[in-house]
Design a protein that fits this description.
Layout lengths: L6 H6 L8 H17 L4 H16 L7 H5 L6 H5 L8 H11 L10 E3 L7 H4 L3 E5 L2 E4 L1
Antiparallel strand pairs: 1-3, 2-3
Length: about 140
Amino acid sequence: MDGICGKQTLAAMGISGGATAEDNSVNLLARLISAEARGEPYTGQVAVGAVVLNRVEHPSFPNSISGVIYQSGAFSCVTDGQFYQPVADSAYRAARDAINGWDPSGGAIYYYNPDKATSAWIWSRPLIVQIGRHKFCA
């Protein structure tokens, strides 16, 4: 193995081969935001992006946006295919706002939709804020 990804592999991961690292970060984060927060208020979309960035900074998680997003079991949208659906325009704006430092989640490293959460563990996390249908937790 040489560690070099071809265009098809990069495209499948939501990364453009000719883009800058910042472009790739925005694209990956926007793809996740679109899949995880579709239909949520704009502030909630930014908050989902902020959770990813908060995880990058937290010692319990991978130290890159792609590492956090592709961490096994971290986001159901990656395993159920929603991550690979078309990306909403608002998700790109939300990704940029999160990358530029806006964190409406209040430093959260987890979030969930109580109508869809299947793990009892997530309910035990200390609530920071609720935005739309998502609860953001420590």
